[in-house]
Amino acid sequence: MPWRLIGILLILVLFLIFSGFNVHKVTIYLGPFALADIPLFVVIVFSYILGAFTALPFAIITSYKKKKKLKKENKTKSKESRQITENPGSQTPVPEKNNDTPEEKKQKSKKKKK
User: Fold this and answer.
1) I want to staple 41 with a disulfide (CB 3.0 to 4.6 A). Which of 19, 33, 53, 54 is the partner?
2) What is the pLDDT of residue 102?
3) What is the dihedral sign for C-alpha 22, 23, 24, 30?
4) Cβ distance 23 to 39 under 8 Å?
5) Which tens digits make up the pLDDT trace of 18-47?
6) Which residues are within 8 A (CB) of 109 and not within 5 positions of it... i.e. 6 or more apart?
7) Over pLDDT 70: what percentage of the chain?
8) How far apart are CA 111 and CA 101, in angstroms?
């Protein structure tokens, strides 16, 4: 059974349990207007959905900025790689890393002294 389906079913069961515990009728006052006898779980779910829609523009803007930054970085990397391929002699040599153990270093220094 796919994990996504199991997750959706689990969330649905939790929602049904939650709504079963919050069936009390409440009145919501919106300034001069009043909405009477609305189940509490409807108010909570509506508030959650309203909060998600409120946060959505901020998430979209952040995602757009990240994509724009990645595009800019990719352009600079591609320019650098083109310059290196066009002028291979202009590359600076990369020093090799020395991962010798202390004992190997001692042996190499002894060989150099001889």
Assistant:
1) 19
2) 74
3) positive
4) yes
5) 888 888 999 999 899 999 999 998 888 898
6) none
7) 79
8) 16
Number of domains in the chain: 1
Contact 25/37 with Cβ under 8 angstroms? yes
SS3 31: coil
Six token digits for residue 65: 């900025």
Residue 112 confidence class, pLDDT cut points 50, 70, 90: low
Residue written as tokens 């996504």? 4
CB 25 within 8 A of CB 38: yes
pLDDT at 45: 87
100 in any annotated domain? no
Q: Which residue has the tokens 């006052």?
A: 29
Residue type, 50: L
More confident residue, 12 or 112: 12
- Closest C-alpha among 15, 46, 53 to residue 28: 46
Residue 80 DSSP symbol:
H
Domain limits for position 28? 17-83
Residue 112 lies in a domain: no
